[in-house]
Amino acid sequence: MEKQEVKKDQEPIISIKGLYKSFGDKDVLKDINLEISKGENMVVLGRSGSGKSVLIKILVGLLSFDKGTVKVFGKEVDKLSGKDLDALRLRIGFSFQNSALYDSMNVRQNLEFPLTMNKKDVNKGEVKKAVEEVLEAVGLKEKINEMPGDLSGGQRKRIGIARTLILKPEIMLYDEPTSGLDPITSEEINKLINDVQKKYNTTSIIITHDLTCAKETGSRVAMLLDGKFEKIGKFDEVFDPKSSHKDNKEIKSFFDYNFIQ
Amino acid sequence: MNSSQRRYLFSKGIDQYFTDVYKAYRFVIRFFKEVIHPPFHFKEIINQCFELGLKSLPLITLTGFVTGIVFTKQSRPSLAEFGATSWLPSLISIAIVRALGSLVTGLICAGKVGSSIGAELGSMKVTEQIDAMEVSAINPFKYLVSTRVLACTITIPILGLYCGFVALMGSYFSVHKNEATSIVSFFHNGFSTITFLDIFSSLAKSIVFGFTIGMIGCYKGYNATNGTQGVGKAANQAVVLAMFLVFIEEVVIVQMANWIRDY
Fold first, then answer.
1. Contact (CB<8Å) B128/A98
2. Residue A259: band (very low, low, confident or very high) from pLDDT cuts 50, 70, 90
3. Is B165 a residue whose pLDDT tops 80?
4. Which of A4, B75, B177, B245 lies in the 20 to 30 Å Cα band around A159?
């Protein structure tokens, strides 16, 4: 699958240094360091409960953290005022694991909602055009009047992505985009992630435990084990049978499990 | 820090209780802060008035009417013993206007509206819909909580007045079956003993009930955890706590009204 090339000499758009996060007695993230450049598709791989989702929720200020520095577009997320944080969030799209579509609204209303709530100056024609454009981007134009409950898992994921695209984000955060989907639908979502990056020129973080998704969408892969990044690099480097399998039993078992699946 | 190192001020349970009280206090304070600052979601407030208020109308009508009939039927024999059935309209009016109209509405709405808000916001919370609003730079507290609490505070007093009227109509039908009383003389008789303070305290009670029901439903729903089980728990707790507080408020406001009356 075709992926966009990344220019390494650019300033990182996301920078995480010495990040620690715990819930009660449990340390979830321990000394996380990560830099992501513009246009990059960074995949964070790890087992369920390893703190992957916590990491991207920290990036948009949904969760606080204990220690460290988290910068997005050069701004420290935890030091932003409510207004500045909202301005930052408008530049970030967040696709939730369960799509998080508003059950009481149909697809059109789901897509219109973030736009009309944030941009008071847009007229009805512009809203309609924007809705049609994002629906076309995710290939679900005919579902415009359906309720979320009537959509399949894959369609809900697509509409969830469309809802984030309507605000034209510069960063896309995908939380388990292929979880609970069959291989064919997963393949379509992987393609959509790459298409979105090309069409909207976004920088992405993809949280997943699906190796196929990681391989097809990621320009780099970060392997999260026990709250720490065990390996960061290109997919083939992280899962190089000559090194990492020998070094780390966790990576090997993760790879073997996905291979069997 | 592991669990053996954790220090509690009193005990785990007592500390948790005070933490919850403080969280609820902050939730209420946040409501007052959010509600006075723009943007004001008038469209959503009207929508919620329809959803929470207008859709409760059939249940309130039935309950109010039955309350009026039953209360009249139960009171008649006692008054008949003293040949005082002509006092029936006054007695019923005082009971309905001072207490029953607002209390019955409060309890019905605590069950219907409280559980509905608790379950709706609870399911939005556990399916990350509230988080989705937040990351889209939409203030979910203002859009979901402020609008629902305001809608309850506006519609429940109106429903309370309506319930009182329907209960009086029920009472009239019951009276009319035994005595040839006209509706005009029934209401004239009934309202001759009602003062402005009675109506005012009843309205004040309904406003407080509405605010409480909306706030409790939203608080429980907004802080729901643990998946679908948490949603059920939030809805259940919203009803139980709202009903409990409605009774407490009833006692306090009646006592206050009596002090004013005596004064």
1. yes
2. low
3. yes
4. A4
CB of A62 less than 8 A from some CB of B: yes
Distance between A92 CA and the closest CA of chain B, angstroms? 8
- For B170-197, write each residue's pLDDT tens digit: 999 999 988 888 899 999 988 998 999 9
Three-class SS of B180-240: CCCHHHHHHHHHCCCCHHHHHHHHHHHHHHHHHHHHHHHHHHHCCCCHHHHHHHHHHHHHH
Give me the residue label for tokens 């309506």. B162
Backbone phi, then psi, for B42, in 5-degree steps? -60, -40
Cα-based torsion angle of the residue sequence B5, B11, B14, B20 in order, rounded to the nearest 10 degrees = 10
Residue written as token pair 């703190």: A51
Q: Is it the case that residue B17 has pLDDT exceeding 90?
A: no
Query: Could you give the angle at the alpha carbon of A85 between the alpha carbons of A136 and A104, nearest 5°?
Result: 45
Dihedral of the alpha carbons of A69, A71, A76, A77, in degrees to the nearest 10 = -100
Domain spans in chain B, listed from the N-terminal domain onward = 10-262
By the CB < 8 Å criterion, does A92 face chain B? yes
Mean pLDDT, range B53-74, rounded to an integer:
95
Mutate to test the interface with A, among B12, B33, B135, B144 (most CBs of A within 10 A): B135
Chain B: residue whose CA lies nearest to A87: B137
pLDDT tens digits, one per residue of A148-197: 999 999 999 999 999 999 999 999 999 999 988 888 889 999 999 999 99
* Angle (nearest 5°) at CA B13 between B11 and B15: 65
Look at residue A1 and tell me whether its pLDDT is greater than 70: no
Q: Give the separation between CA A55 and CA A113, rounded to whole angstroms.
A: 26
- Angle (deg, nearest 10), helices A153-165 and A183-200: 10
Contacts of B127 in chain A (CB under 8 A): 98, 100, 103
pLDDT in tens, A128-159: 999 999 999 999 999 999 999 999 999 999 99
Closest to A226 (Cα-Cα) out of A40, A50, A9, A66: A50
Q: How far off is chain B from A89, nearest CA to CA, in Å?
A: 6
Query: What pLDDT does B63 receive?
Result: 96
Q: For residue A242, give both structure tokens.
A: 């000559």
The answer to whether A251 touches A239, Cβ cutoff 8 Å, is yes
Residue A191 contacts residue A1 (beta carbons within 8 Å): yes
**A94 close contact with B: CB closer than 8 A:** yes
